[in-house]
Each structure stands twice: as structure tokens, then as C-alpha cells.
Design goal:
The complex is a heterodimer. By secondary structure, chain A is mostly helical. Helices cover 81% and strands 0% of the residues of chain A. Classes of the chains: A mainly alpha, B mainly alpha. Chain B: InterPro entries: LrgA/CidA.
Chain lengths: 241, 130
Amino acid sequence: MPDLSLATLDPMALTGANVLLWSVLTIGSYAIAKRIYRRWTHWWLMPLAVAPVLVAAAVLALHVSYRDYMRWTHWLVLLLGPATVAFAVPIYEQRLLIRRHWPVLLVGMIAGSLTAIVTSWGLASLLGLDEALRLSLVPRSISTPFAMEVSGDIGGVPDLTAVFVVITGITGAALGDMILARLPFASALARGALFGMGAHGAGTARAHQIGSAEGAIAGLVMVLVGILNVLMAPVVAMILA
Amino acid sequence: MSTHYAVSKRLHRSTALQIGAVLVFWGLGTALAVASGVPLPGGILGLALLLALLLSRRLSALSLRRGTSWFLAEMLLFFVPAVLAVLGHREFFGLIGLKILAVILVSTISVMVSTALAVEACYRWTSRHA
């Protein structure tokens, strides 16, 4: 995608005002989306779904190019970097759980990651989606900061991956419930891993509602699988190329 | 020792200071990635650095807990702008969009079932042989 807007860059002052306006609008939409969800707890009203819709409505209503909008609010996306750092504390706090169950969790994460890669790639090919879409779909089961990183590494489009990650999160929490209703797994380990591996942050939130053990395991799996996938990305890129 | 105590006490109390500290770790990780040429994002190296300090007890998890919880709780906000990229893909609001949705739904179900089955089988096996 050539960035045509570069040729018509706004004067500095105007850009500053836009950065402020659109950052406030984005943070405001997010705050409203959280309040809506606190009031009506339907899976399709997750802030994950509602906040982008509110922002998109503002962008379309005010006839602003989505590309300008993304440039003005890019500093928010950069904060995914420190958010990755923040995962150190939950990992540290779950160190006993990791020490006791790491082989089991590792097997689950490898099985889940391989399934994600093979089914995303295979189904997308089967349905005739182009290569950029196929590659952008591969990392969508992992948490956003990691997913966007992997997407870039393997030749996908990180922005598209962010969209797919969101759709996976919204639908994944509901899909997990459906699966558990039909396949009641006996161990909290399996139930937690199912949500953390399949639906990252949204899944972890759902797992916390099922039980504290499930929640801790889901959060842990979400973080570890993100790191595992970033480390695996160069190998995956070689195989898919 | 007393200044160290005073600093850590202030850090314990202030969420803003802790958020600042997380940003510092991210900056360190990014600088480390650039300087060493390791092909890992600065965030991951920052995570490793912070985890090493926590595990070696040079830093207490309590002194960063509020800041890191803030980042994790509000993480969703940080990718709202990225999701707007969908507006550049009008073709998603049609057949291609339905195909993508089908891939995501079927793949997510497969990932969840295979993960849970693997963990359950492995857990049973290890508890039987423990």
C-alpha cells in the first residue's frame, strides 16, 4: 500500500491538534464501551467490539481518512510494547504453576500453535484467499502485541492481523463456552489452556469468570504462547515461504 | 540504603510512577535489541529483563504490580486504532469477509479443541506416572 497521504502532510500545528482530538476521542470511545459492557454483559457488546465501532463511526461521520486517523493515534499502538513488558509480573506470580505443569502446558501450546497455523493456512487456501490474507490470519490466536510482531515477521500485514485478532477474541469467548458444553474437560488445566490458547485476552477474561485456576492458566498460556510464537516466527516464515 | 527504601516506598504507592518504570524497561529492552542486533522486539527483551530482576529478588513484584496491571487491563485501548485498518478494506464487507469469518471460526474451534485434548491427555499421563 503506497502512503499517498505523505505527499499532502498537514502543517505541524494542525497535526498536533488532530493528535490531541483523535486521541481523546479514541480514549473516550473506549471508556464508553467499557461502561456499556458493565451495564449489558452480552458477548457481542464486548468493549473489544464496541470501541472500534464507535471510533469508526466518528471517523466516517467527520470525513477523516482512516489512514490519517491511524497516524495521529499511532502512539497508542506503540504502547503495546510496554504492555508486553507488563506480562513479566503475572509470569513471575505464576512461577510455581509453571514449574509444576510446564511440560503439560508446553505440549498444549505446541498442539494449539500448530493447529492454528495449519488450519488458518489450509482453510484460507481452500477458500481461495490471497497470500497476504493467509499469512495475516496465521498469528490471530495469539495476543495482539505478539500477533502483530509475528505477522510482520512472516510476511503478513500487521494491521490486518490486529483486526483478525479482535474478531477471534470476540467470537472465541463464546465458542469456548459452546465447546465446554459439549466436551466437558475434567482438569482446570485443560479448560484454562483452551481459552488462553484459542482466544487470548478475551478468552482469559472469560476463563477468569469460570474459575480462578482457569483464569490464571489461561493468562499464563496466553503470555507464554505469544513468546513461543515470536521465537518460532522465523522458522514458520521459512516453512510457509 | 535509606534512599533506596524511600524510592521503593514511593514506587509502591504510585501507579503513575510504576507506569513510568514499565516504560523505562521497554526503553531499555528496545535499546538492548538495537545494540545487540537480536531479532526480538524490545518489549520481549524488556519482559526478560524485568523477569530476571524479579526472580533474582532485586526487585519486588509489589513495587510494579499496579503499573503492570494497568497496562494489562487497558491493553485493549492500544489496538483500537489498529483495528480501523478494516476501513481500508471495503472488500471485507462482502464474500471475502464471510470467508475470513469462516476461517477464523473453524480454526478457533480446532485450536481450542486440540489444545484442551492435548493438555488433558498429557495431564492424565503425567499424574498416572508421577
